[in-house]
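Closing statement on the MRU sub-project.
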Amino acid sequence: MNETSARRIQPPATVVAWCGDDATGFLRLLDQTRLPCETAYLDCHDTHGVWDAIRRLVVRGAPAIGVAAGYGVVVASQALKAEGFGDKLTAAGEILKSSRPTAVNLAWAVDRVIASARGLESDPPAAREAMLAEARRLHEEDVQLCANIGECAAGLMEEAGWESLLTHCNAGALATAGIGTATAGMYVAAARGRRLRVYCDETRPLLQGARLTAWELQQAGIEAVVIADNMAAQVLREGRVDAVITGADRIAANGDAANKIGTYGLAIAAKHHDVPFYVAAPYSTFDLSLAEGGQIPIEQRDGEEITRGFGRRTAPEGIATYNPAFDVTPAELIAGLITDRGLICPVNAETVGRVLGGS
Ligand code: MRU
């Protein structure tokens, strides 16, 4: 990066933090349910507190959930005595994993932190310290993964001359420990002086695009334009968008990618209008144990998110609802996967395997 022209890339707030010098500390989360109106934090001191925070989307976005759950294992271990430590830790890990099923980063992080305590089960304080060290490594690694994605995406933007982008949900700094995934290239390119406009799908029903992506881009001085989800096809038809970039919660071995509900429809609309559709994600979001996207578990959420979002009833009392939180975009609609290991293009089992096979 040219240091003289570069602006500093600064995430708008600390999303996940460990408070305390050692494993007797606690987990602090930026409460994203209160953004953009309020910057407030929630402290988690036990397994249920972490489970509930992930479930309620206090912390959300696949990589951020992973980092939080990594520290969550340390928090969970604080209540465990030496007797049965290993089994109880595994059980606590399963509870944390049950909070949200789609983002694979969650289970990946829990398993990785628990594995770091292997052989130390008879000495809980030593096990806890080892797990805290691993959770911290995972946290720092995520910052670097985002930075790598940012380099890859900014190169692509530069090469293709993109100035106007569209994104869905929040795959930004608020969804990671670093500068985001879908937003990473935006931040890097903007820091290098590139002027960008980013259309942010509002993202019904929980409005992560309007509340979170628009907020963090605005904080960074990047032009953000909020549109309701049902406007995206028209915006694409009007030729306002050079490329669509979204994040992902889990990517199967053939490149099918699960992301926030509405992403699939957006990819179809982008294809129809010849606008390239890219997915940005770190290696930790790939699940090569699944051959294709149909095997990805889709989280179902409470219908009240649709009928009484943000405290005001907008549908009749007693009405039936269906509220899948994610959908799967088939690889054939994805122009490329922007990863920390480089660009995967075209997207298929062979190219995914070649880049991610060693993970
Ligand atoms: O339900 P959410 O807000 O956790 O959904 C988040 C998304 O769908 C993101 O696009 C995805 O997790 C990628 S975050 C880098």
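The chain has eleven helices and 14 strands. With this model delivered, the sub-project is considered complete and its resources will be redirected to Aim 3.
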